[in-house]
């Protein structure tokens, strides 16, 4: 690979690159389209999948087609008025409420943490390690509002934790960091459900000093060298919730992020402070995560986050 190709590849995130490849394959192979495409063929492709694929999925397919054409030096057919009008019509004829993850309420966070703490005192070393890892991941994911890929990309060298004080976490890149400038996130220590204490206990139990913070653990308690994959966070969270007696099918990794946003909103945080803390730059993105119904769970009034 030439230096030019290497830098061009680095400009696009891995997940986006995989999604775009799959979208192009779907257009060419599954549907039988030809590249470079015409605006008419793109419009017919949308019509063929209207009501079958979600509008957001169709928009992703259009983005992939647009990227392919511009990168190859061809005119972008997705910008044609007919394509935009067809997509608008599909949105009108097939309206669909966007599915959102159920926010993890504080009472359920407390319940799952208590269950994991009980597991961590058992006699199975592998189960003890997994319980400490899962507790740290869930608490850090909740109170910091991290996405699953951000949790899985945390490196010990980029984390500074001071028990009783707080924790700082540096991410060289993230979804909201479009320019890959890197950003440091801070979270204070709490009196209960403390992510700083959970992180310190996990590192101590796992005897980790460098590399990925969160890793796979086999049946014998051996730790993987690589970090967890982002797709493993959903089953990890659901299994921990199920073991705690909480029906978990409606929860995803975004439940941690939405859970914190919901708690902060109901606790009186203004939207500007919430956006700054979590890292949202777009108000619409922030509002999608905030659950506005009255809060029925417990509060942490005695331990403010900031």
Concise structural overview:
The protein has 306 residues and is mostly helical. It is built from 13 helices and five strands.
Which key terms come to mind for this protein?
single chain, 306 residues, mainly alpha, DNA polymerase, domain 1, hpI Integrase, Chain A, 2 domains, three-stranded antiparallel β-sheet, two-stranded antiparallel sheet, 13 helices, 51% helix, disordered C terminus
Protein topology:
Layout: H1 3-10, H2 14-30, H3 39-49, H4 55-71, H5 81-93, H6 106-119, H7 125-144, H8 148-152, E1 159-162, E2 166-171, E3 183-188, H9 195-206, E4 215-217, E5 223-227, H10 233-243, H11 254-266, H12 271-278, H13 283-289
Helix pairs in contact: 2-4, 3-5, 6-7, 7-9, 7-11
CATH architecture of the largest domain: Orthogonal Bundle
Largest sheet: 3 strands, antiparallel
Uncertain runs with pLDDT below 50, 5 residues or more?
Answer: 292-306
Number of strands: 5
Q: Structural class given helices, strands, pairing?
A: mainly alpha
CATH homology superfamily of the largest domain: Intergrase catalytic core
What would you say this structure looks like, in words?
- This protein is mainly alpha-helical and 306 residues long.
- It folds into two domains: 3-93, DNA polymerase, domain 1 (Orthogonal Bundle); 106-289, Orthogonal Bundle (hpI Integrase, Chain A).
- The protein contains 13 helices and five strands.
- It has helices at residues 3-10, 14-30, 39-49, 55-71, 81-93, 106-119, 125-144, 148-152, 195-206, 233-243, 254-266, 271-278, 283-289, and strands spanning 159-162, 166-171, 183-188, 215-217, 223-227.
- The strands form two sheets. The chain has a three-stranded antiparallel sheet, covered by helices on one side. The chain has a two-stranded antiparallel sheet with strand order 4-5.
- A hairpin with a 3-residue loop joins strand 1 (159-162) and strand 2 (166-171).
- Helix 2 packs across helix 4 (55-71), helix 7 (125-144) packs antiparallel against helix 9 (195-206) and helix 7 (125-144) crosses helix 11.
- The protein is elongated.
- Residues 292-306 have low confidence and may be disordered.
- One of its GO terms (molecular function) is DNA binding.
- Pfam families: Phage_integrase.
- Keywords: DNA recombination, DNA-binding.
